[in-house]
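Writing this down once: the sequence line spells out the residues, with the fold written below as integer tokens. I am pasting one below:
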Amino acid sequence: MTPLDPDRTLALSYVPAERRAALGALWRLDAAMGAVLAGGREPTLSQIKLVWWRDSLAKLDEGRPPAEPVLEEAAAHILPRGIKGKQLARLEEGWSILLSQGALSGDDLARYGLGRGALLFRFSSSLLGFQLSEPVKRAGEGWALADLARHSNDVDAKAALAAAAERLAGVTAQRWPGPMRPLGMLAMLALRDTQRGLDAREPQGSPARMARMFRHRLTGR
């Protein structure tokens, strides 16, 4: 099973125990799709694997999942909370945008932010007991774009981080409700990345990032 990055691992620890398994399953599903694109695999092979994830998720609505830990976890913890497999399958659309040849365009980045980040925060909000608001939607877009910048070449990383900064403008203006603060933590770390820039990025899980997450837990900002 693909592990979560240190930032999401810590954020997950602040999720109420009764909702942690479902949110962890969702985030690990996202991480598994991301792992398909890691390591510079051939785009055609990556596309085939992403399609397999999409089709396998859609089939969760029809019966028993295949013997794959991430899918079994999704079936056991996400579907009972009202999110269907066909809805989860839509995450593939966001990830597949990264298979575009050449540098990512502004339109590519916008569609990726919506197709991965906004959708992931929508599902996460639902699992935390909230509907997706416009500020949280934009926070999800910004988080996904900042995360992309950590895993891209310099050209794409610079463009992704600039797009993230645009989405995250004003993210500290609202006070996040207590149950939603694990998502807010991720948004604040993404904002921190945009403020520090590519040359001063911190390792995920570093003490300074942990302190920023703890401050958000206390203040909601």
